[in-house]
Amino acid sequence: MSVLEYDVCIVGGGMVGAALACALGQDGKLSVAVLEPRPPVEIDPDDPPELRVSAITRASQNLFTSVGAWPGMVKRRISPYRHMTVWDAGGDARIDFDAADVGEDDLGYIIENRVVQLALLERLAAFERVDLLAQAAVAHVEWTGGDSDGGARVELEDCRVIRTRLVVAADGARSRVREMAGIGTQGWNYDQHGLVCAVRTAGSHQATAWQRFLPTGPLAFLPLSDGRCSIVWSTAPDEAARLRALPESEFARELAAAFEYRLGEVVEVGPRADFPLRLMNAEEYVRPGLVLVGDAAHNIHPLAGQGANLGFMDVAVLADVLSDAASRKRDIGGLRTLRRHARWRKGEVMTMMAAMDGLKRLFGSSLPGLGGLRRFGLSLTNSTVLLKEMVTRRAMGLTGDLPTLARRR
Prior knowledge:
Blueprint: E1 3-11, H1 15-27, E2 32-36, E3 53-56, H2 58-66, H3 70-76, E4 79-81, E5 83-88, E6 94-98, E7 108-112, H4 113-124, E8 130-134, E9 138-143, E10 152-156, E11 161-169, H5 176-181, E12 185-201, E13 208-214, E14 217-223, E15 229-235, H6 237-245, H7 248-258, E16 266-269, E17 273-282, E18 286-287, E19 290-292, E20 298-299, H8 307-327, H9 335-364, H10 370-383, H11 385-396
Parallel strand pairs: 1-2, 1-11, 2-8, 5-13, 11-19
Antiparallel strand pairs: 3-7, 4-7, 5-6, 9-10, 10-11, 12-15, 12-16, 12-17, 13-14, 14-15, 17-20, 18-19
Helix pairs in contact: 1-4, 1-8, 3-4, 8-9
């Protein structure tokens, strides 16, 4: 039996886990193992767009730049968007955001999840104290540090064992590590699925992120670098299944109509998939020797594209906390250290959850009077310069108590 020793063991080398490994690797104070059962395959320039994309905020871009991974994303493919238009199906009220209004070149980037992950994993090779253990799956975790101290024994399916001060669960919404730790979750299903695919429209996407609020859920068209759009259509599960099964021509007609032909006819439709939407928050973010990050800790409705960015801010905060603890010779897996991370993140996550849940319910409700309230709110925000600027800066991650790596360089 092979026994390996690391300060930190990150379970999951997806976008969030790989970002944390880069952050800790660049800091250089701690030895890190990253366990990733299924490393991604490199993208060929001619490959069609991936189904899953993320809207990357300026704060997340700052994190990627800070750890040296941003050039790897740029050399593959990224899609800046300079404008965002949101409108309600129940009337003509709308709100338009423009990067120029806040003195920025763009509002953010639409990037395929695999591009983000590939660039981060590629960057790991530059860090001497980080090891990527590919095809490594966790069989069992035993926490050995007592009531407040760090320490864990991680058994892998190939019989290797890792001894570590801290286990980081970055293994997604169905986190096995969270389950092994016995940490419960709170939340609810939205009785909606998000249908995703890439489409080409007759008209240009104009480097704009578009979103129309339908009674059944929001429909987003997100600009891609090759001129296509990635769509996310939130609707009832049975309706999502029906839409997914339609012939391409019929789906294209229904999609264009639902979007009010804002970009003309839909002339090309890629493969379709759908996934359930829910709100979830772990009952605990930290335990002695354990911290949950990204989807293992929280899920929100995708209507504002903030889910991945919450995970990246988990990374930036945890990197600050662990670096400080290592400098002060404190137990990086101790509860005293990890509670600082939990306090820093809990309020931000809960605020974002409440905001996204509230928007989903406001725009999805057919109660009398709410349609007028929605239209009034959109019109008021669109016409109030200071309010719109405040909303834009907040959504971009330019304000608030930002961790070091998320700040503008």
